[in-house]
Amino acid sequence: MELKLEAVTVEFHRGERQRHQALKEVTFSLQAGEAVALLGPTGAGKSTLLRVRAGLVKPTAGRGSGRQDGAVALAIQEPDRGFFAATVREEVQFGPDNLGLSNKESAARVDWALQLVRLPVAKWEVSPFQLSGGEQRRVALASVLAMRPRILLLDEPTIGLDRAGKEALIFILQRLIKEEGIGVLIASHDPDFLYAVTRRVLLLEQGVLRADGPWGRLGEDLASFAALGLKLPLLLAVLRELKAAGAPVNPEQDSAAEAKEELRKLLRHQREGVVYN
Amino acid sequence: MNYGTYYPSNSFWHQRDPRTKLMVLIVAALLVVLEGRLGGQLFFFGLNLSLYVTAHLPAERAWKMVRAFRWLLILTLLVNLVFSPPAVAFLYFLRLLNLLLLSSWLLGAAEPLALIQGIERIFSPLGRWLPVAEGAMVLGLSLSFFPLLIQEANEITIAQRARGVTFKKQWWKRMTGLLAMVVPLFVNSLRRSLEVAQAMEARGYRPGEPRGSLYELKWGAADTCCMLGTGAVAALWIASHLLL
């Protein structure tokens, strides 16, 4: 499955003084099984873009809002604010029940989703309000995953998560992308988190799509990257510095795993005493 | 833009003290309610329009308000046309329109928080017997958190739609959908109000103790003139009733 956005423009408060174009002729596509990062300073239109994709905001012009049949699911910032059920299990089962599935099928989906987000079975029957912040976030993710979306949109998923929570989320998302073939679009301010999960970056500035391409080829857009007050992922920055210092590395790495491999290669060379100038 | 929201501008009325605007509203509303002559209502209608225009409020705003209340206005007119002479029906219609126009003028020209501050100052002499300052604080907090509550409701709608809630299906599904909206809204509001209370206490708010304000209200000569003008209109109205 593929999702497309064609020349989408979104305007708020049309025909009024506070008129504001949140998106200006944005075009791009996202395949199932592909992970894409959505970067941009505050107010660049990231949340609006996700909402258009999820079919929650109607574009003023252009085509390509997502469908509403559960194939595209959006997890908002702090999705645990939508909790209302008595137990974690009921909370996650709410979605499948809404799809009109049989009880058995719903329960199977709940098992699958809660196992996927690695929530200990002992916590499945407690109130979601009793869980820690990181666990609540995982339950919220599970409740969206139980809908079995083909494309998952995440709005700032790392807000309020500690290091362990972030790492757990990275692991879960990697599995979703690789094993379940789910397409993921993540808006975030955390470059290291994005680099660990995605291979492709969309750069938004004031509603305009400034760049769209793999992480490794950000070279040309680096100037605008810094000008927007955005930071490069640490691994990419280190590779670039090393390259600038004359080390034989290729800084054009599309994922954190590849960047790490490149660094390891360099270290091996050094240990073997390869001399370079 | 809404007919009842603050409309930022730098007009004559925007610069006045909120107490002035409140007093103008109270006097004008009283006169409009008491006026039983069609000619008088027409006169006040002209006066209210001039208030509206001098506050630089756009005509579109007034039109939106009329449209929002169209059923009430039409119903008032029709019901009274049936039970009373046309002049009286038109009088009631105009009275309602005048009151709507006045309220839209006040809310457009005065920020809610400034209004609350004005109310607090007007009622401050009662502070010895009633918790006026606390009441004003509660009112102000509710007002400033109202937009947040709407935003919160929107966010929750999005979150629950991602989990398959639609508000169109059978009624029992709509009920669970409603529950899925209302419970988080309550939980989050309670959580937020606890946080606000803690933040206020952390910054030294003690109920019952006297407080100053960051922006002191300033009463100017123009405010006194406005009050005198309002008083003059009221006096003229009384005189017109005694003489005519």
Q: Class of the largest domain in chain A in CATH? A: Alpha Beta
Task: Kindly report how far apart the N and C termini of chain B lie.
Answer: 43 Å
Estimate the helix proportion of chain B, in percent: over 70%
Helical residues, percent of chain A: 25-40%
Largest pleated sheet of chain A? 6 strands, mixed
Oligomer class: heterodimer
> How many strands appear in the DSSP assignment of chain B?
0
Quick structural gist:
The complex is a heterodimer of chains A (about 280) and B (about 240). With about 280 residues, chain A is an alpha/beta fold.
Task: Write the topology of this structure.
The complex is a heterodimer of chains A (277) and B (244).
Chain A: E1 2-12, E2 20-31, E3 35-39, H1 46-53, E4 61-63, E5 72-75, H2 88-98, H3 103-116, H4 133-145, E6 151-155, H5 163-179, E7 183-187, H6 191-197, E8 200-205, E9 208-214, H7 222-227, H8 234-244, H9 256-271
Parallel strand pairs in A: 3-7, 3-8, 5-6, 6-7
Antiparallel strand pairs in A: 1-2, 1-4, 8-9
Helix pairs in contact in A: 2-3, 2-4, 3-4
Chain B: H1 12-15, H2 18-34, H3 38-54, H4 59-68, H5 70-83, H6 86-109, H7 112-123, H8 132-161, H9 171-202, H10 221-243
Helix pairs in contact in B: 2-6, 2-10, 3-6, 4-6, 5-6, 7-8, 8-9
